[in-house]
Specification:
The structure is a homodimer. Helices cover 46% and strands 6% of the residues of chain A. The structure holds a DNA duplex.
Chain lengths: 140, 140
DNA sequence: GGTTAAATATGATAAATATCATATTTAAAG
DNA sequence: CTTTAAATATGATATTTATCATATTTAACC
């Protein structure tokens, strides 16, 4: 439902959101240990998120990752777009050329509608909002 | 959201359900032409569906595919299981070890719930039910 | 300024998915 | 019993996704 990379990214970002600040940076090792995502793999994902202006990173001793203030307003669908490009979740669930309310595909009104709700719910969830829950989930 | 293969399979099965009978079989070429799925690829998928007792096939001239009577009662989730194995859509949306109503993951109550609805809707839709719609969609 | 602890860049390998090609089997029909 | 129109089996190739490894850059601190 979510790609492996996207699920990994979300877990890592939840961890960072809950535990980091500009002065208290989180290292790759800590992220990898607490999400059980292999270090080189999560590294690649986090680099993309830095380029996507979600996270900030600092090299060198005492370096690490932390959330940008604006990053906290980013929602889960935007993360998907950053990691997988914007076209992944567009259009019809059967990928038909023509599919709309006027000429719906056979799944448009049932599964298709729930798919739309799914995308909307990804869009509604920001990391700021996830922060409002109690801290420290197990993320593995 | 659905794998390529699964979307292809559903399109082909809708076409077959709407146009076939035990005496009026549908050929690979016709299926490929009306769904725009490459012939060798849809062939492999249909073979799996024959092995999965959804379709019946007949070789030789005038041969082709048609729906088994029981096949019409099969739902979309079962098709997913036949093509991709049963574990694809199980457990937590973040693939966490522990995730349940008692100890929910951060997405359990929002995205996770919609994911559950999604799976349930796949489960509710049988090909018999899809047949109740008007015939002849464009399936490409 | 040398050491060290961190991210970064790059690319190699592996596994899963998707796609294509070809030879074989089967059954109908003359 | 030969031809022919179909599915079937098998496997080759390509693409995407996931995973791993290694060398480089950066900044802090002594």
């Amino acid at each position: 439902m979510l790609s492996n990379s996207l699920a990994y990214a979300i877990k890592a970002l939840i961890y960072i959101a809950q535990n980091s600040s500009e002065t208290e940076r989180i290292t790759l090792k800590e992220i990898s240990d607490s999400t059980l995502v292999p270090r080189p793999y999560i590294a690649k994902i986090l680099q993309a998120l830095v380029r996507g202006n979600v996270l900030q990173s600092v090299k060198g001793p005492n370096g690490g990752f932390y959330f940008r203030e604006e990053g906290l307003e980013i929602n889960l669908l935007q993360i998907a777009h950053i990691l997988e490009g914007p076209d992944k979740y567009s259009n019809c669930i059967l990928s038909l050329k023509e599919c709309s309310a006027e000429s719906p595909c056979p799944l448009h009104s049932n599964v298709g509608q729930i798919r739309t709700m799914f995308l909307e719910s990804l869009e509604q969830i920001t990391f700021r909002r996830l922060l409002q829950h109690e801290k420290s989930f197990d993320l593995f």
